[in-house]
Design goal:
about 280 residues, Rossmann fold, seven-stranded antiparallel sheet, about 30% helix
Length: about 280
């Protein structure tokens, strides 16, 4: 069992949990993730390791509550436990040792960008971050990224930082020159837009993909993505790939495969709550 050591509400539907996982904290590297199960019969959820404290023996998980399972995880409080955490999984981020890296995070993807920016700074690269959200209350990890380099904040409504999309700010930076590589994490439409933008400037772009993952070993095949015309398994060969080679249309289609099942699960949970019983009871 992995005990929740601390909890913080980062935005209306994004929660940070610091969880006891000493072995993972010692060996995890930027870009890697874990698969968690809240209880023995719970759904398996892949989550990026947003940070780690080896001395404390903890890892940081950032959870966006969008469905039944993630809402249950987000509701955990200090002292509660997660049944099991498998990891670290996936390939570590390919970090440049020098030069300037542009790190772009959209929504909860900013939490995934943070450990990448950490690793880049530790290796000696200069980090410039562009982060975006709908409005000020949805911005996360701004202060953490500011400790690593310059940060430009973009919001759809202009309530914080620059009004507009992250691609607007990224375009200005790319026009000015000096960006050696781009790391982008966020919703599929955002990553696709960033990749299309950077292609024009010939700037290498790495994106972190979020296909359906179940076992974390490539055995189930749920995490299949097409990269450069070849089938790749995101959980063992990724989750990061060259953004200029990713088939984003296929990725978007695959992400919608289980949407109806998730709606049914939420409806079942809501009915169970109204009847004041567990959704697993007859």
């Amino acid at each position: 069992m992995h005990v929740i050591l601390a909890r913080q509400q980062l935005s209306p539907n994004v929660t940070r949990l610091d969880v006891a996982a000493p072995r993972i904290a010692r060996v995890r590297r930027p870009g890697q993730f874990v698969i968690v199960r809240l209880a023995d019969c719970s759904e398996r959820i892949p989550l990026t390791i947003a940070d780690a404290d080896p001395a404390r023996g903890s890892i940081t998980l950032v959870i966006q509550a969008v469905g039944k399972s993630t809402r249950e995880l987000s509701a955990l409080q200090p002292g509660d436990s997660i049944h099991d955490i498998a990891g670290p999984l996936g390939q570590p981020t390919e970090l440049i040792p020098a030069g300037t890296a542009l790190c772009i995070g959209g929504g909860v993807g900013t939490a995934v960008v943070y450990p990448i920016a950490q690793g880049l700074r530790q290796r000696g690269a200069r980090v410039v971050s562009v982060i975006g959200a709908r409005s000020s209350e949805w911005i996360i990890f701004q202060q953490e990224l500011a400790s690593l380099g310059d940060v430009i904040v973009c919001t759809d409504d202009g309530s914080c930082g620059r009004k507009g999309f992250v691609t607007d700010a990224a375009r200005d930076l790319l026009e000015a020159g000096g960006m050696d590589i781009v790391y982008a994490v966020g919703p599929v439409p955002m990553m696709r837009a960033v990749a299309e933008l950077t292609r024009r400037y010939g700037t290498r772009t790495i994106v972190s993909l979020n296909p359906v993952m179940i076992d974390g070993t490539g055995m189930c095949g749920g995490c299949r993505v097409s990269v450069g015309g070849a089938v790749r398994f995101a959980c063992v060969e990724g989750p990061e790939f060259d953004g200029h080679l990713v088939d984003f249309n296929e990725l978007q289609d695959r992400l919608s495969t289980y949407r109806e099942f998730e709606r049914r699960a939420e409806a079942c949970a809501a009915d169970a709550c109204r009847l004041n019983r567990s959704p697993t009871q007859p």
